[in-house]
Amino acid sequence: MAPLQFKPMNTKIGCRVETELIFRGWRMVVLENKNLRVSILPEKGSDIIEFRYKPLDLDIMWESPLGLRSKEWFVATNGGGAQGNFLDYYEGGWQEILPNAGPASEYKGASIGQHGEVSLSPWNCQVLEDNGQRVSVKMSVETHRTPFRLEKILTLEKDAPTLFLEEAVTNLSAEKMEFLWGHHPAFGAPFLSGSCRLEIPGNPDVEILAGDGASHTNILPGKGKWPIVSGKKGPVDLREVPSFKNKVSNMFFLTNLPEGRYQIKNPEKKLSFRMEWDLKVFSHLWYWQVAGGSFNYPWWGRTYNIALEPFSGPPTIARAVKEGNALSLKAGKSLKTSLAASFLTL
Questions:
Q1: pTM score, two decimals?
Q2: pLDDT averaged over the chain?
Q3: Domains along the chain?
């Protein structure tokens, strides 16, 4: 990995970027303006570990019970396990996922661990622009088990509480390649609470996974329509976020979305988080919900979070290819897309 291109932070007001920070042994890049602070770990998957609304001093990212382990003291406890090491490193926050999503899978003879390669890889980082009115940072990575390059530019403008992402994936091989691609942002308290409501346009299809005994579901498995689905004790409105005391854990996959957009609204904080994305690339929305109801490894009944994740298809790469839901690129070709993540006041 090429070294970070360091640049002193001379700007005291407006947009600014800091590249000379170290947090628990990891290099950290911070993009900031009057309303938003975004902290990124380029050496660890380009993870976003802080997405803070500064007027309320409120970071909405979830931190797992492990948190971000020190780089110097980290020991991968999963060894050569079939699922790979994603969960050993998972601190919460927001990951980029490619070329596999969900459990470990195999593609063209390559075994790919849970949530692919790029979330555990070090990325290159370069400051493109830093002038007080606009800051942009470019990050890039090449996979090892598969032949892809992934690049993204993260931008803040003036005082806007919005992070803009422009991305491109390139097939570096001499053959057609299929892949899954997505974003894995997880949200937690104090922003997340039982008073939160989700806003997703239209009535997309919902696939509901069954509980497995360790994950306690309150919803009947099968297929339904957003937002009302069949629960074990009557209809359940998926727009309502459960509280920790509900002791439930669910996984949903939403398809046939009319728009690439959602909001998480917290009326108590008078704040909303909005994600917007390109539906032609990220056609699925995964909804992971844990409200104290996931037991045994890895959560042990102690976690409270949700994740609303734009993905290009269902888990895994093998299933996506079989069902015709995988993205594909011919040799040497690229695919571009964009996303935006914003705060809105209520």
A1: 0.93
A2: 92
A3: 10-175 (2.70.98.10), 182-311 (no CATH)
